[in-house]
Amino acid sequence: MLDKVKMALRIVTNAYDDELVDLISAAEQDLGIAGVVLPASLDEICTRAIITYCKVNFGVPDDYDKLKRAYDEMKAQLVTATGYTTW
Q1: Vertex 33, ends 69 and 54: CA angle to 5°?
Q2: pTM
Q3: CA 3, 7, 17, 70 torsion: positive or negative?
Q4: Do the Cβ atoms of 58 and 84 come closer than 8 Å?
Q5: What is the b/e burial string over 28-61, where b = at least 16 CB atoms within 10 angstroms of the residue's CB?
Q6: From residue 58, how far is each of 69, 75, 79 by CA, in Å?
Q7: Which tens digit of pLDDT belongs to each residue from 43-54?
Q8: What parts of the chain have a pLDDT lower than 50?
Q9: 79 — phi, psi (to 5°)?
Q10: How far is CA 13 from CA 30, 44, 45, in A?
């Protein structure tokens, strides 16, 4: 997952790995708090949600509001989709 996030953020150095690993964990926890149960093998929609969360929270993105809305929409869709919750 770290490599995918680094690629999406256009990061080629290892200098930010610790911060990115923390962001990935925070994304997983945020989705979990919302009721999303992530599959053991992450599918594309879960991967995209985690990457978007990292884009929102890494540095100060120029398009913060747009990215935040996109992440919130992905999270809402996962919460209501069959197979991503235990409800």
Answers
A1: 45
A2: 0.94
A3: negative
A4: no
A5: bebbeeeebebeeeeeeebebbbbbbbbbbbeee
A6: 16, 18, 24
A7: 999 999 999 999
A8: none
A9: -65, -35
A10: 26, 24, 26
Contact present, 74 and 48 (Cβ < 8 Å): yes
User: What is the spatial distance between Cα 59 and Cα 78, in angstroms, rounded to a whole number?
Assistant: 26
Q: Which amino acid is at 69?
A: R
Q: 3-state secondary structure string, the chain?
A: CHHHHHHHCCCCCCCCHHHHHHHHHHHHHHHHHHCCCCCCCCCHHHHHHHHHHHHHHCCCCCCHHHHHHHHHHHHHHHHHCCCCCCC
